[in-house]
Amino acid sequence: MLQKDKFITTFSKSTTNSPSRKPRKLPESIPGSPQDTLVQFVKGVGPKLGTIFANRDIQTVRDLFNFFPRTYEDRTRVQKISDLTEGARATLSVRVQSQRMIPIAKFGKSLLEVRCANESGTLSLKWFHPPRGIEKRFQPGIQVGVSGKVKFYQGRPEIVHPEITWGVSSDLGEDGPHHHSFGRMVPVYVEIEGVTSRTLRNILWQALESFGGTLPEELPDNLLQKWSLPRLAPSVRALHFPPEEAAYSLEKLVSFRTPAHERLIYGEFFKFEYLMLRKRLQTTRVNALSFGRREGRDQMESLAKSLPFRLTGDQKRAVEDIFKDLLQPHPMSRLVQGDVGSGKTVVAFLTAAAVIAEGGQVALMVPTEILAEQHFRSCQSLFQGKLPAALLTGKSTGPERSQIQKRLGSGEPMILIGTHALLEDPVQFQCLDYVLIDEQHRFGVDQRRTLKSKGIRTLANGTQVHPHSLILSATPIPRTLAMTAFGDLVVTLIREMPPGRSPVITKVVRDKTQRAKAYLQIQNELKSGRQAYFIYPLVSDSEAEGFTQLKSAIAEAENLATEVFPEFRVGLLHGQMKNDEKVATMERFKKGEIQVLVSTTVVEVGVDVPNSTVMVIEHAERFGLSQLHQLRGRVGRGSLQSYCYLFTTAKEEGPTSTRLEVLEETQDGFKIAEADLEIRGPGEFLGTRQSGGLPFKVANLVRDAEWLIRAREDAIQILKEDPELKDTKNSALRQYFVREGGRAGERLFTF
Ligand code: ADP
Ligand code: MG
Hints:
By secondary structure, the protein is an alpha/beta fold. It has 26 helices and 23 strands.
């Protein structure tokens, strides 16, 4: 029996340490299980293949089992030669008639041609540089199974480099266990160089024979019964060698809807959600000061009343959500998600005001100086100095810094707005109770943790308290992804936009004529006093710009200034400019001294210039939809009609081009995000935040959303009933986590 303490230490250790990618190590109390045997010891593998596998992260038998097929091919139905068509994949049973070796080059290279036939016609099989000795196996008269892609050469069907199944009887009734490639549903794997799919199937068959039966179950039986899902061992076997049952039809297999697939999908989601939700639960064991009673609420309400606008319904709801959390004696971990321009900043400020009114200190960290300054200024102007604030960036002078430090050290209730500079050691708060992080995806988990740790302290009465934290994200994230990538946070959505904004008219611009027309329209906008952005892409999402791109932005700025818009002032902004230069240029744009701002994606981050009504994005096909949407959000901020032109060289019919049309059709960031998730996968959203991506091998957030929701509900239930998994009915799960140590979720925790 495992001790409870053992479980908890294993668990909490792995959730508080920073992510590591060390090879799996088993706790000493657990004997190494057979699945941890190295792949090279599987019959038929050996050191050479073992190395090839290891290079693909397939080190143990368990890894091998988890190398699931990408898709399946139907080889149950045997086709007639007379029905073959060019380019189709075919599976046939044929009798060898004759063969010949044809020399094709000076260096002894040759072509092997094997002529075969059955009742429905004749077929050639061809090998260039055939494996040595293979020709000896094609004795005239023997029956073989053949599959591969059909080509017609001089009007006759042939298959080049077919997959051969030996020893097939003419009526196809028999298929030896180690062939598995004929007369059945055959799995197709991601290619591993140097290993044919046939070899892979043989190895998997051997591994399953030797080790498959001992695969320990990971999920509680009652949950498997609840969803009528099979146990782990038979499921793994069925994924690699689908049984001949209706539930494993080709359609079910390729759509990952067999019982075995669903079992694996559910299992992956369940384990993951359990970890995430458990992490969330753990915050209720930690203390925080509670805020937002009388004084804080009064202050919030009076500031809200004095705003130059009225809060939207969603903004009000968000403020209330946050207040509910701040009132708790445990730290808040909340994510506010809202489209660009939905007004998240004021929500953050109003809740900060409550904390400040009750004596707390607040930190607001943003990714760029431009944004920090903008936030600081809008804090001043929105609240007319009623919210004590300070600004700290890389630009802050020594005297400014010591002044700030003095205020913080004296415990003055205030909000400190700044960049990464907030993370520096000398910045010490006396009572940091509320941590706000804007544009969260620009920060790494370590940075978020560092800022938060500045608020962890022990009170005079000996209680340790943690700060509340609120994370703001302008990238609408699909629900399923939010449940996984931010599973450890509570999410508030702001979907409603402040009133008086008309949708940005968006056009995909493909050719010269369209471009000329767009320039004309832009000129009209500029003539009536509006401003325009021209954006150039970056390859990576760091600020390190590729030389050629930088060059093209500079060249284009020149071209726009002299050729296209000679009567207007054109400015240039890019990541390799000095910070003051950047801020100065931005400032001139804000004041209207520059009408056209040519920029690389540095402006992506929350810049607010309501007079700009045109957004042009060059090479739009290089951006993800959400990012384009984000950029588009720079215009249409006032009540003026705005325009977005997506310049692209991608072909009209291509998928890239169709993808861009989503932006012509909708302004709803969440819809765009869903489309992006479908097209580009979760990486688009997680970006550098979780370089490892989500730990799902079989499960897919788009395809399997309903299983994610089921798994999440079940995980919530278990955490309610038996959070430490002490109940014997949960022992399989408990043992799984002891083995894995919770590593699966750790990389994705926000703090
Ligand atoms: P984001 O959610 O992208 O961070 P901001 O907080 O920067 O958006 O808000 C964008 C602009 O909208 C700001 O100028 C802000 O003052 C303004 N704003 C915020 N809320 C409202 C509202 N309810 N009505 C009108 N304007 C608002
Ligand atoms: Mg913002």
